[in-house]
Amino acid sequence: MEMQIVFPGQMRVDALVDDLVITTNQDGSAPSPFMLFLASMGTCAGVYVLGFCKQRGLSTEGIRIVQHTRSNPLTHMVENVEIDIQLPLDFPEQYKSAVIRSAELCAVKKHLENPPTFDVHTSVVQPEMLK
């Protein structure tokens, strides 16, 4: 997959992928890149919970996911991510542990458990190639 990162002005940095524009901004008018990273964990778990419920004909009404992150006070790096799947009282007991297992299938979580390597470099591009 290729994603282009562009600088449309001010503090905006956008990601272009397929026909989508993912806008980030450090001034609070859009999520920061790190906020999107954190949100990707909870929303990814949500995608799997949604799919689990849909496959079984279970309503998602009253279900929400609350994510808490804890950071190391010295390094400020996130050390723990807690995903709390809050279920309504009438959610079938037989599916409670299975809904947790479905959230644990999240692709973002799996990639963090086995992180990719990064190769950061520069290249020179002719001006006509930027159009």
The SS-based structural class is alpha+beta
- Beta-strand share of residues: 25-35%
The main sheet comes to: 3 strands, antiparallel
What is the overall shape? elongated
What's the architecture of the largest domain, going by CATH?
A: 2-Layer Sandwich
What does this structure look like?
With 131 residues, this protein is an alpha+beta fold. The protein folds into 2 domains: 1-30, no CATH class; 38-113, K homology (KH) domain (GMP Synthetase, Chain A, domain 3, 2-Layer Sandwich). It is built from 3 helices and 5 strands, in the order E-E-E-H-E-E-H-H. It has helices at residues 33-55, 96-103, 107-113, and strands at 4-9, 12-17, 20-25, 64-71, 78-86. Strands 1-2-3 form a 3-stranded antiparallel sheet, with no helix packed on it. The radius of gyration is 19 Å and the shape is elongated.
